[in-house]
Amino acid sequence: MTTQGIIVLIAVGLTLLVWILDLVRRDRLYVGYGIIFIGTILGALLVLLVPPLLGWITRLVGALFPASALTLLALCFIVFMLVYVLAQITVVSNRLVIVVQELAIRQAASVSRAESAKDEPQGLERRTGVDL
Amino acid sequence: METKPRVLVAIPAYNEAESIGTVIERVRESLPDFDLLVVNDGSRDATGRILNQLGVLTTTHLCNLGYGRAIQTALTYALRRDYDVLITLDADGQHYPEQVKALYHENLGAGWDVLIGSRYVESHDYARSPLGRRIGMRLFSWLVRLVGRQHIYDTTSGLKVIRRSVFAPLTRWHFIDFHAEAIVYLLRLGYRVGEYPITVAERKHGQSMYSLLSHVTYPLKTLLILLIAVVEAELTRRSRR
After folding, report:
1. Is the pLDDT of residue B74 over 70?
2. Contact call for B77 and A103, based on CB within 8 A
3. Is residue B2 part of a domain?
4. Which residue from A97, A107, A115 is facing B65, i.e. has the nearest CB?
5. pTM for the model
6. Residue A47, pLDDT score
7. CATH code (residue B196)
8. What percentage of chain B carries pLDDT values higher than 90?
9. Would the pLDDT of B156 be above 60?
10. How many domains are there within chain B?
């Protein structure tokens, strides 16, 4: 990879890093997700700054060029993040379902209890003979 | 002294303003001994208002969660309020509440955990259904037979008599529409699922919950969840040992 390419990628990486840290600071991004991105960016920067590491990864994934190896890794990361984000959305959606169902059940249960009480209004009074 | 089973009739309803009133009236007439619960699944039309006017016990979902979740709400309600039997009916008026008693007595007599009101168990004839549905019916009936080792002819019927024994298993895990996937799950867990012949009326109002797109997505989703149901049932069985 050319020096210019490495400089551009490092600049992009650092910008992303600052952006993610700021999002976490302003509570716009959950710290757990921030860790994933920061870890990935730092890993990418390390690979770019240590050329033997990039060469080793290129051989490891069976790519012909370092750029191809980086593209493959980026693609894997995107797919991983996509699945992860969709899984998180499903988790949140399921929590919402539970809340909606719980509200509905509690509302109906309270109505049902009120109606049962209405059906036998003086039941306890009659049985106990005391004014409740 | 033997106590009478507590029975809850649950009707999941989504935008059924045109038919829900008649359905409730008929249920009240035909099944006066049973409690009635309508799960208003986030309807945007006048369904909620009609239910209020009729004074029906209603669980209202604040947003539309789908048929499966509506049934699950009814199951959870029945479980918590100590009902012995839950009967599910469609809100579109296709089921005859008058036929429910026979189904209920068959369930009590034969001891089914789930008894399905089946349109096809007698005739085995899917010919009157639209082509897409006919293919789906055959496919899922065949799949249930393959993995559940029992022939269920009507896997998509909304009329079911469900015993308390399966309330918990059916709320423990999520199902799409409580159709083939739920049947397979229960069969694999060793529960008894049966069919009883019923007739259904043509839908007069509203739209089917199956849109054009869902004719493609529904079989795929059900197929996937059915396979997962087999695994899930196996894991549940192992955890019981």
Report:
1. yes
2. no
3. no
4. A97
5. 0.80
6. 87
7. 3.90.550.10
8. 66
9. yes
10. 1
* Helices and strands (H and E) in chain A: how many: 5, 0
Burial class (CB in 10 A: 0-12, 13-18, 19+), B208: exposed
Q: List CB contacts (< 8 A) between A115 and chain B.
A: 57
Q: Find, among B81, B71, B87, B100, the residue nearest to B171 by Cα.
A: B71
Residue B72 forms part of a structural domain? yes
Residue B27, Cβ density class (10 Å: 0-12 exposed, 13-18 middle, ≥19 buried): buried
B21 domain-assigned = yes
Q: Per-residue pLDDT for B144 more than 90? A: yes
Q: How many residues does chain B have?
A: 241
A-chain residue closest to B65, CA distance: A97
What residue numbers bound the domain in which B112 lies?
7-240
Q: Of B77, B79, B80, B172, which to mutate for an interface test with A (greatest number of A Cβ within 10 Å)?
A: B77
pLDDT > 70 fraction of chain B, expressed in percent and rounded:
95
Please state, in angstroms and rounded to a whole number, the distance separating the CA atoms of residues A39 and B206.
53
Residues 6+ apart with CB under 8 A from B163: B84, B85, B107, B112, B113, B114
Average pLDDT over residues B26-48: 95
Does the pLDDT of residue A128 top 60, yes or no?
A: no
Please say if the pLDDT value at position A98 is more than 70: yes
CA dist., res. B99 & res. B107, Å (int): 13
Residue B105 phi, psi dihedral angles, 5° rounding: -70, -35
Q: What is the model's pLDDT at position B152?
A: 93
Distances (CA, A) of B27 to B7, B34, B45: 13, 9, 22
pLDDT of residue B208: 61
Q: Distance from first CA to last CA of chain A, Å, rounded?
A: 86
Chain-centroid distance, C-alpha B6: 18
Flag whether B115 is in a domain: yes
